[in-house]
Write a structure and sequence with these properties.
By secondary structure, this protein is of the alpha/beta class. The protein has a single domain, classed as Alpha-Beta Complex (Spore Coat Polysaccharide Biosynthesis Protein SpsA, Chain A). Helices cover 28% and strands 28% of the residues. The chain has a 7-stranded mixed sheet with strand order 5-4-1-6-11-8-12. A two-stranded antiparallel sheet has the order 2-3. The longest helix has 13 residues. It starts with a strand and ends in a 7-residue tail after the last helix.
Length: 242
């Protein structure tokens, strides 16, 4: 199974800190933000990892991470030339995944749970996708999953009246249908290819499974959430190694 970490974007909500660097290279407590998704993948047995960044700071990722030797992993790098959305960035990885299943993590998502069990569940899943949900107090800020029984029946992006408090986090698992799905997408009103549209394809197909995170989860894409991520990591240092 291949791993993909999406680390593009302009990081405008973190200016001026991101004026000369990519937000995923900023520190979360005592290490660069991108180390956290890398660690979660490697401890789950995913050692072949593609990192997708924007054109301005791609060399910085290479300088920081190198080949992956220091992580007992192998890193590949891809550049998303323009901000076309999460799904568009994911579409750049088709040749890298080469027909295998893939685990995708947004580079600014930091979470306490280990994913090794979920990865094993997905290996056994014959087809489809798997997403990770988390109960939140402000679901209107996220993609929100509507659940019926043990199935997701719909995902709505930033709804004004959320049908649940279950946010879809930035951790996804896909089979090899993903590439054809991305090719059928049309840009949203934001001019981007939306990952929610990808996920809803699997929902409508009836092959979307989900897991619920039990530990804390946060993104780190704003000044407030970057501070929160550092505080949470500091308070649970053992979850990420000394």
């Amino acid at each position: 199974m291949k791993g993909i970490i999406l680390a593009g974007g302009h990081g405008t909500r973190l200016l001026p800190m991101t004026k000369v660097t990519n937000k995923h290279l900023l520190p979360v407590y005592d290490r660069p933000m991108i180390y956290y998704p890398i660690q979660r993948m490697i401890e789950a047995g995913i050692n072949d990892i593609m990192i997708v960044s924007g054109p301005g700071h791609a060399g910085h990722f290479l300088n920081l991470l190198g080949s992956g030797k220091d992580f007992n992993a192998h890193f590949s790098f891809e550049v998303q030339d323009e901000a076309g959305g999460i799904a568009q960035a994911l579409g750049l990885c088709e040749n890298f995944v080469d027909g295998d299943k893939c685990v995708v993590i947004l580079g600014d998502n930091v979470f306490q749970d280990r994913i090794i069990g979920a990865v094993e569940n997905f290996r056994k899943q014959e087809r489809g996708a798997r997403v990770f949900l988390k109960e939140v107090e402000d679901p209107e800020r996220f993609g929100v999953a509507e659940i019926s029984g043990d199935k997701i029946v719909g995902i709505e992006e930033k709804p004004k009246e959320p049908k649940s408090n279950l946010a879809v986090t930035g951790l996804y698992m896909y089979d090899n249908q993903i590439w054809n799905i991305i090719k059928t997408l049309k840009p949203s009103v934001r001019g981007e290819l939306e990952i929610t549209d990808v996920n809803n394809f699997y929902v409508e197909q009836g092959t979307m499974e989900f897991e619920t995170l039990t530990g804390w989860w946060t993104d780190a894409g704003t000044v407030r959430s970057l501070y929160r991520a550092s505080k949470l990591v500091a308070e649970s240092r053992n979850d990420f190694g000394e």
